[in-house]
Amino acid sequence: MNILFVVGRIAFVLIFILSGAQKLMDIPGTATLIGSKVVLPDFVTAYTPQLETATGMTTANMLAILTGIVEVGAALMIAANIGTRAGAVLLILFTIATIYYFHPFWTMTGAEREANMVNALKNVSLIGGLLVFFVLGSWRPSAYRYDDPAAERL
């Protein structure tokens, strides 16, 4: 049972690891995509010139790097069973933002709406799995028997 739990964790987060690594390997492409889709709130845009000056990068480049690091880092936290709840929360927030900015099917019609709704629903399913990891935390199947009352206190 323990090995299946480890394999399941790794299989579940593999999409985030590969997607994040792809973003980090193509920062200009990711930055272009983010720049075309993401509109930052006004309270954030007031600080973007200062951040761009301090880092020497555009806001889109910074967001591309940040999203790649968050995806890979949080997924590895879940896979390694270290800080599982924190990793799950980060990926839940990331996935919600992905639905909002990249799959806004509610603003579309026809085939484009259907395709984006399918992608959004896949992301909702990922959020469901991440919620399970949030509830389980860093629980290990071998630590408690299923009928052990101590397991309920987790």
From TrEMBL:
Keyword Cell membrane among UniProt keywords: yes
UniProt main location, coarse: membrane
A single Gene Ontology CC term: plasma membrane
Keywords: Cell membrane, Membrane, Transmembrane, Transmembrane helix
Localization per record: Cell membrane
InterPro entries: DoxX, DoxX-like_oxidoreductase
Organism: Pseudorhodoplanes sinuspersici
The family this protein is said to belong to: Belongs to the DoxX family.
Official protein name in the record: Uncharacterized protein
Bilayer topology annotation: Multi-pass membrane protein
